[in-house]
Design brief:
homodimer; about 210 residues; mainly alpha; 9 helices; about 75% helix
Chain lengths: ~210, ~210
Amino acid sequence: MAELAARTDLSVPTIKYYLREGLLHPGQAVGATRSSYDDSHVRRLRLIRALTDVAHLRLDTARAVLAEVDNAANWHDAVGSAHRRLVAPVEQPPSDDSLARVQALLDRNGWTLLPDNPLRENLARALDALSELGQLVDDELLDTYAAAMKSVARVEIRGIAQEDPETAAQHAVIGTLLLEPVLLSIRRIAQQNTARALMDGRAARTARG
Amino acid sequence: MAELAARTDLSVPTIKYYLREGLLHPGQAVGATRSSYDDSHVRRLRLIRALTDVAHLRLDTARAVLAEVDNAANWHDAVGSAHRRLVAPVEQPPSDDSLARVQALLDRNGWTLLPDNPLRENLARALDALSELGQLVDDELLDTYAAAMKSVARVEIRGIAQEDPETAAQHAVIGTLLLEPVLLSIRRIAQQNTARALMDGRAARTARG
């Protein structure tokens, strides 16, 4: 177990805790007090660490996600069911107006969602929260997001669909979660650079005045 | 205060708590035990609720973000300083390899970041976490993200830059945070629809045999 700790940068008490909690499968017993662990344990521990450290999931959410990874029948199911686990339930029902705007967005893009898919209510609730703060999200911005995410999803899903079903299911879940910080970091870099370019452009026009 | 609670869907004890903690500015005293509150209090409470409920910030992080909103000199500063507050410090330094990949991505896109900008390390660390799990993020995906986020940032920043500086500063912070769930929901909708289209296409090809 000391070797396992060294290979995963985790402490022995932490690994014992994950074993007790059933997040990590037991090693093979060798003698009365020793067990042997293999690469599958290393991979699993790195996955747990990534879900908690990088994706900042709470341990009970991480547990639910790991169960999806273990049980997914194929990569297509894994995408949908992982999303279902990861969507926090909305505390307040969204307004009819925002629900209608979400439906219009789906229609404009030829997208469908099952009626009980929680993404619909989540997106509508996020629009409500912004409009309560006086920050209306116009359709131009929603359509810009939709076009951008279509090109993103095409590349993301193409990679997953080429793999064998088990690896693909695992990657669907990991990728959904762990690529979010990558995408959002790049969004912020783009925002800062766009803002600076716009400020510099105005300053130059004023100077030329 | 009962009226304030009704207008914001918050409980009176919660509002008293925000007053004690200094997140909400005091009302105007009218008599010994009563205070009067105005629209500025309603707006502030809705903002606090949005940061904690929709953006899922912890209260100490929400407090730091509110301080940025209150102190931002202009919308350009607000974008950068809000990001700085919102980036969680990395627990482990990123690998040189990932840092080099981030720099190459910046160079390919004509982007710059100050050397101490935490986004650089955060993005590199997220790439490390994925590669430790055997999920290599190739440059094609990074470039797809960069192109998508450029078109997104152009529309987002254009809206902000048209406003007066104070409103713009507030919107820069709110927009960065509260538009993230909107963008990520749309990404998941796009992923599910792309996955289904790909599965259906394969099934149809198999059936035609």
